[in-house]
Amino acid sequence: MTEMKTLPAKELQAREARDRFFGTVAALEERIEPAHLIGEAARGARSRAAELVLNTARAARARPAMSAAIAGGISLVLVRRSLGRMILQKARRQARG
C-alpha cells in the first residue's frame, strides 16, 4: 500500500525534473541562436571599443607631446601619396621653368 502512495509522488518528482530539464534545454537553445550570439558579440565589442577610447584619451592627456608626434606620424602615412605627388609636380614645374 505504501508503494501506491509513493508511486504518484515519484511520478510527480520525475515530471518536475523533466520540466526543469526541458526548461534548461530551451534556455540553452535561446542562448546559442545566431542572433543572440551576434548581439552578445556586438555588445562586447562596443564595450571594449569604449574602453580603448577612454584609455587612449587618458594616455593622450598624460603625454600630449608624444600624442602629437604619433598623430603627426599617422597623418604623414595617410597623406604620403598626395604629398609625394605635390612634391613631384612642384619639381617638374621648376625643371620646366
Overview of the molecule:
- With 97 residues, this protein is mainly α.
- The protein has a domain at 65-97.
- The chain is 94% helix and 0% strand.
- It has four helices and no strands.
- The protein has helices at 2-31, 34-62, 64-78, 80-96.
Set out the fold topology.
Blueprint: H1 2-31, H2 34-62, H3 64-78, H4 80-96
Order of helices and strands: HHHH
Query: What is the overall number of helices?
Result: 4
Structural class: mainly alpha
Overall geometry: rod-shaped
Name the assembly state: single chain
Helix content: over 70%
Beta content: under 5%
Major β-sheet, in short? none
Distance between the termini: 118 Å
Give the averaged pLDDT, no decimals.
90
Contiguous uncertain segments of 5+ residues: none
Number of strand elements: 0
* Rg (CA only): 33 Å
